[in-house]
Amino acid sequence: MRDRVLEALAWDSQIDDTKIGVTVENQVVTLTGTVQSYAEKLAAQDAAHRVPGVLDVANDINVQAPFHLGRSDTELAVAVRHALEWDVLVPDQRIRSTVTNGWITLDGEVDLLREREDAESAVRRLAGVIGIHNRIVIALRPAKPEAIHTAIRQALERHAQHEAQHIDVRVADGVVTLAGTVGSFAEKRAVMGMVSHLRGVRAVHDRLVLRS
């Protein structure tokens, strides 16, 4: 499995695999080393998840931006605001950011889990980002668990009919727990993405595993 993870890192053009160490124990992959951007750190994480048989990834990679890409916190804060404003999927006026030593903290309240995720996606590729703390909350909206459950089940049946047969959906207080098996990491992300578009969902607990 370690060899397959190393191959996945080497094949991804976003990653300098020579800077990353890999250890594997009981289908849990640990990534170490130092990369030049937060986006590269996440790319390495995704590459490891795509390997069949990998259940969990511990991402201990450090981010150290090259000197010529370094930004002051003020410059990065301005870039964050521009990125949020230019992304049409992000309700930028409802989101605040704080930048400290290259770490971005996002705060605020949005209507959808998808908007929370889009805000983080909008800033993760900015030069100088070391990491992101996403503290954006989902506005509490009256929603019956049964209605959310039905909407999720219908979405799964429309977009991932085969996977829907193997996925258990539980809803409590706006928190959705997905358990079961999917065929690939891409299918897993698709299922998670569908759930994030539903109103009334404020968090998703991922208990999905890949079929060996």
Structure characteristics:
212 residues, alpha/beta, GMP Synthetase, Chain A, domain 3, Histidine-containing Protein, Chain: A, 3 domains, 4-stranded mixed sheet, 7 helices, 36% helix, flat
Largest sheet descriptor: 4 strands, mixed
Q: Which regions are unreliable across 5 or more consecutive residues at pLDDT < 50?
A: none
The CATH C-level class name of the largest domain? Alpha Beta
Beta-strand level of the residues, as a percent range? 25-35%
Helix content: 25-40%
Intertermini distance: 12 Å
Average pLDDT, rounded to a whole number, is 85
The CATH topology of the largest domain:
Histidine-containing Protein, Chain: A
State the domain count: 3
CATH architecture of the largest domain: 2-Layer Sandwich
Please give the count of helices.
Answer: 7
How large is the radius of gyration?
18 Å
Order of helices and strands: HEEHEEHEEHEEHHEEHE
Count of individual beta strands: 11
